[in-house]
Amino acid sequence: MLTVYGCANTRSTRVVWALEEANADYQYVPVDVRAGAGNQPDYLALNAAGKVPTLVDSGFILTESAAICTYIADRFADAHLIPAVGTHERATCHQWCYFAMAELEQPLWTMAKHRFALPRAHRVPAILDTARWEFAGAVNILAASLGHRPFILGAQFSVADILIGHTLAWAHAWELPLKDEHVQAYAARLWERPALDRAQRREQAESGLAS
């Protein structure tokens, strides 16, 4: 059985979302990284960075949320979360997965680091405006490529939509505007997916946060 080590309202949500889209059977182990659980020796043995998520599959350990999501998409091929190997569609899917991590999420993580994640002495508040500007630019690129299509690859929902959708939800929680109407509709379409709702409920319940 797959085991996911995660923490509610973090990047582990995108991994659980992928598993729910694939109707996979998995175990969820909560790791309260906010309370320092990620720095305990037993967890560091799984993930040297002390971060979530971590996936364990029959002794195989994988970290980094995008890598885990694409692994899940390949492992559960019948869910059709990723195009076939060697196709142009597969390459385009990878392009948008990398864009989500390197361009769309990067400014948000910069903001998080300089708001609360870094030690106070290493925070640079002045960088926040630059990060907002960078994020707006990335959204413009997304909008230009998305157009009127329902998903980033076209008609087929994919793992790239999971990574982009979760990142846009992060921005929404921080009240960063998604000014393009097609991006707004795209984000709403992703956030309404039943698998995301199940993922969020599972993480909240496993972390003891469900109301």
UniProtKB/TrEMBL annotation:
One Pfam family cited in the UniProt record for this chain: GST_C_2
Entry-linked Gene3D superfamilies: 1.20.1050.10, Glutaredoxin
Record domain GST N-terminal: where: 1-80
Domain GST C-terminal: 86-209
UniProt superkingdom: Bacteria
Molecular function in Gene Ontology: transferase activity
SUPFAM superfamilies for the chain: GST C-terminal domain-like (SSF47616), Thioredoxin-like (SSF52833)
Protein name as it appears in the record: Glutathione S-transferase domain
The organism's taxonomic lineage, starting at the top: Bacteria, Pseudomonadati, Pseudomonadota, Gammaproteobacteria, Candidatus Competibacteraceae
